[in-house]
Amino acid sequence: MPLRMSSLFVRTLKEDPVDAEVKSHRLLHRAGYIRRSAPGIYTWLPLGLAVLRRIEAIVREEIEAAGSQEVHFPALLPADPYEESGRWEAFGEGLFRLRDRKEADYLLAPTHEEVFTLLVKDMYSSYKDLPLSLFQIQTKYRDEARPRAGLLRGREFIMKDAYSFDIDDAGLDASYETMREAYVRVFTRLGLPYVMVEATPGAMGGSGTHEFLYPSEVGEDTYVRTAGGYAANVEAVTTVVPEAVDASAVPAAHVEDTPETPTIATLVDAANAQQPRSDRPWTAADTLKNVVCAVIHPDGTREVVVIGLPGDREVDLGRAAGTGMLGDGEVDLEPATEADLAAHPGLVRGYIGPGLSLEAPVLGADSATGLRYLLDPRVVDGTRWITGANEQGRHVFDLVAGRDFAGDGFIEAAQVRPGDPAPDGSGELELARGVEIGQIFKLGRRYAQKLGLSVLDENGKSQVVTMGSYGIGVTRAMACVAEEYADDKGLLWPINLAPAEVHIVATGKHQDVFDAAEALAAELEAAGHTVLLDDRPKTSPGVKFGDAELLGVPNIVVVGRGLADGLIELRDRRAGTAEELPVGEAAAAASARVREQYAALAAPQG
Amino acid sequence: MPLRMSSLFVRTLKEDPVDAEVKSHRLLHRAGYIRRSAPGIYTWLPLGLAVLRRIEAIVREEIEAAGSQEVHFPALLPADPYEESGRWEAFGEGLFRLRDRKEADYLLAPTHEEVFTLLVKDMYSSYKDLPLSLFQIQTKYRDEARPRAGLLRGREFIMKDAYSFDIDDAGLDASYETMREAYVRVFTRLGLPYVMVEATPGAMGGSGTHEFLYPSEVGEDTYVRTAGGYAANVEAVTTVVPEAVDASAVPAAHVEDTPETPTIATLVDAANAQQPRSDRPWTAADTLKNVVCAVIHPDGTREVVVIGLPGDREVDLGRAAGTGMLGDGEVDLEPATEADLAAHPGLVRGYIGPGLSLEAPVLGADSATGLRYLLDPRVVDGTRWITGANEQGRHVFDLVAGRDFAGDGFIEAAQVRPGDPAPDGSGELELARGVEIGQIFKLGRRYAQKLGLSVLDENGKSQVVTMGSYGIGVTRAMACVAEEYADDKGLLWPINLAPAEVHIVATGKHQDVFDAAEALAAELEAAGHTVLLDDRPKTSPGVKFGDAELLGVPNIVVVGRGLADGLIELRDRRAGTAEELPVGEAAAAASARVREQYAALAAPQG
């Protein structure tokens, strides 16, 4: 039976949703695929569910083909395993927590590492049982601070999460590679362009991880790439650290009056006027900017820290927070508030510096202020800086790292810039934005260790299992497909994801037209195709065509005025082309076109 | 590819789970179909998931065939719609509630009437859009006080819930009947015996409802039936109310000393000795027993009430709580505690009565105690009772209902007994137990009214929509199938629900055996069958046979010792029979048997 527009539970809308920021959200809403139930929480209407199920089927097929077995965990889980792993705290406010009637703690799982680990521990005990790969396609929950862009960042969403279990590192490497290849097949079949980038493990821990990003301006992730093939999440880019500099010729640090230097630029001008360098002029990169920030730890603790970096760079709060260098778990990093500054009167706003000598530090855990002082990796020993002298209107010159000051450690906090060198030497970085649609992790032994998953090896010796974790955002991938395949008229589904293969539009008032449309639908269905039939008796042709374009079925057959001349029109939604065909040939032609579209998908991609 | 026991994520267990109360729970656990994650919360292992998916597919097919369209709602919902409907309170402790990071109230939905109502309100506005039927197969949450029996009463479970929307009562009747017929087809295809019983709407409200019960001793629901075809949940049985009695000849009430009458039996003996009736001896049915109970209202309020009923009957707390006569929403009813009694010193334990005259009531909202007094419907006007005189060691005789005392109302609180007359006159009731696997409700206009779902009728007049709600416990139905189809060796799946159609067991150490088993598996899969292959190289035949019996695939093919003579054994798991076949005929024979088993299912049932 075809889907019939006369009874299908769908209403197309002219208005965008009020909170719509991106095309996929606007179109999925207006075309009646999804409806918002709460911020970041959506209801799936019949057409949306049809597309979602097709995407799930592709994911399932490829992950099973990679040797993974499907299971299904609860979304509602007891807190204990997450307390053991430390993530009950580490997830911070992003975790939906609740209590049952007996006051026991539960959570709505954002991801399932802990319970997969425990399940395997419960079932398996020997190296002979490994390698093992398990997966589920399941509803996940994250209490996002800023749910946005429809399905792109939801609070209830569907993920495919898979986990591998191996006896040794070589096994994990092989499992990781197998899953990486499966991901390539999944995204290829979904028609989604992707970039695989190096990433940082973040709160998940582990030894290596890559993200699959759908390159798009609507993405929240910034990544970098080089013509030479390097690609990484900005959080994972490591600064090319200059070699230490010989500073023996640098004079002793000296404090100078620098009135009217409220900005880096005015400071540089003043420095060149008052204290010119013999070798070259001072630049912003010679100034050491000390930025006061506040780290919000997972337990809610607020810690004021100072980040020192060259004056020509800005702090990238997200990158710095993602490095894992600020503390355990998922931390937030914010600019310091007035209150933060007021609480530390040792900080002279506009003139903050590390102090004039190693003996009398102003910044650092052991200093007068007691504030952690983290440095950009470019601040290597021997580098020579102009920086605040901790006195109003004064700066210190010729302050040398290692000789006159030191930090509590380094942090990758500076914004990555186009033109920065790639860490692998493959050239200059360029920046791009993308949506994370998949991530693969080498978790290593972290979870197995904490939760006690060991098996006996060939020699009867207990070995901690090493694990991988592999996620695909299924609902998010659907949003990306909608983002990629759309034009200003509406959605434009690839044939293998469309809610129907052919959309038949019957126009006009003649019963003949409706009879012919019904016959054509029956013929196409008999040939194994899925059909959406617009059989609404009183709707105008214009509305019907508009709806067809908005809904995005790739092939549109118009049964209308031409029928009197024995003609039917076959439209290609994506190409925007149309051809008239004798009514007797229409089914065969539409069927052939559908087959061609599938064949084109299966063909090797350009 | 066959499922292979050598790599399949399954471990059979010899031990029952510690909390196992019923066969299905024991077997699904021991056979490695499910694992408990928390009380009433289960993880699905590959074999369990395979069966569950087959059950879901049958449910989906039949509900779609009934004209319902599939959608999918979130499990995590904002509280507002449930506050508007009153169920945020009415669900009481059974609702999982939580707050997001902005302190907004959410719930894990136990059922979705409110949001379906709002969705239709959002999308539709005309009578032309109706009738409409929508459904979902979705994870539901109820914080059961006593999760039990594995999947039979879970806290996270899968339900198919459908909702119908009609413009008038006739439409609702038709939608209800369509869904009833679909349910019959679903349960027939699942091979589940069922009884359709009248039930009470309870907290759901509405005008009519039936439950589908799987008759089983493990069920928590007691229902009644007659040889004449009546069937009802005990909560829905209505007492055949005797006609009012002419009490003009009954003497005035009189209080008597009745020492040493601690029980109804001793009271009856004393009455017959001291105050014999002229017409017949007193029996327990002539005594009026007044039972003190506590109603726990949804808001947590505890209300002490007194229920008066004939002394030969016990109070059925569940039935009384289910009648809806004790208050709005889902109430609990408990025996009164010492504290309850202590709080009402007017109650003389063992001698509680309504008082000696209508002018000086002891029980009732307007009485000295102020406690609501609810009467069994058999206490009709003119009936003559012996009951407590509210004095230690004394009873009142010839107390006549209507003349000397009255209640605040009637309640169906007495236990239904075998032999009681059916309300429809179809004979004497017999009692049986069952598991609720489905329920269909005529909700009527309650939700549409509260949430404002109206459409314009043919005359342009706004009409409140009338709704039905239809549930099937999908995971619970699976437990019932496991309950129904099992023997002392293990599970016994019907062919259309089994995780595989044929289980091939390769025994012994000869490579020939494994090669032949592989070839047979390949042949059966080529013929379109699903195969589970026990290819474990070092497992003993006994263990393999035991596992095959426990797992419950209906057809077992043994490739073992006989292979040297060119023979293979084909076992029928349910019949317990086996036949030897030439190896060349085995695949065809197994295939034929599978086809016969499907054909037998499709045949009209006995």
UniProtKB/TrEMBL annotation, chains A, B:
The enzyme's E.C. designation: 6.1.1.15
Transmembrane segments: none
Localisation per UniProt entry: Cytoplasm
Catalytic reactions of this protein: tRNA(Pro) + L-proline + ATP = L-prolyl-tRNA(Pro) + AMP + diphosphate
SUPFAM superfamilies named among the record's database cross-references: Class II aaRS ABD-related, Class II aaRS and biotin synthetases, YbaK/ProRS associated domain
Sequence ranges assigned to domain Aminoacyl-transfer RNA synthetases class-II family profile in this UniProt record: 35-494
GO biological process terms, semicolon-separated: prolyl-tRNA aminoacylation
Gene Ontology cellular component annotations, sorted alphabetically: cytosol
A Pfam family of this chain: HGTP_anticodon
PROSITE patterns: AA_TRNA_LIGASE_II
Gene Ontology molecular function terms on file: aminoacyl-tRNA deacylase activity; ATP binding; proline-tRNA ligase activity
Keywords on record: Aminoacyl-tRNA synthetase, ATP-binding, Cytoplasm, Ligase, Nucleotide-binding, Protein biosynthesis
Family per record: Belongs to the class-II aminoacyl-tRNA synthetase family. ProS type 1 subfamily.
UniProt xrefs under HAMAP family: Pro_tRNA_synth_type1
Domain comment as written in the entry: Consists of three domains: the N-terminal catalytic domain, the editing domain and the C-terminal anticodon-binding domain.
Subunit-level organization: Homodimer.
Function comment: Catalyzes the attachment of proline to tRNA(Pro) in a two-step reaction: proline is first activated by ATP to form Pro-AMP and then transferred to the acceptor end of tRNA(Pro). As ProRS can inadvertently accommodate and process non-cognate amino acids such as alanine and cysteine, to avoid such errors it has two additional distinct editing activities against alanine. One activity is designated as 'pretransfer' editing and involves the tRNA(Pro)-independent hydrolysis of activated Ala-AMP.
Protein name: Proline--tRNA ligase
Species this chain originates from: Brevibacterium rongguiense
Taxonomic classification: Bacteria, Bacillati, Actinomycetota, Actinomycetes, Micrococcales
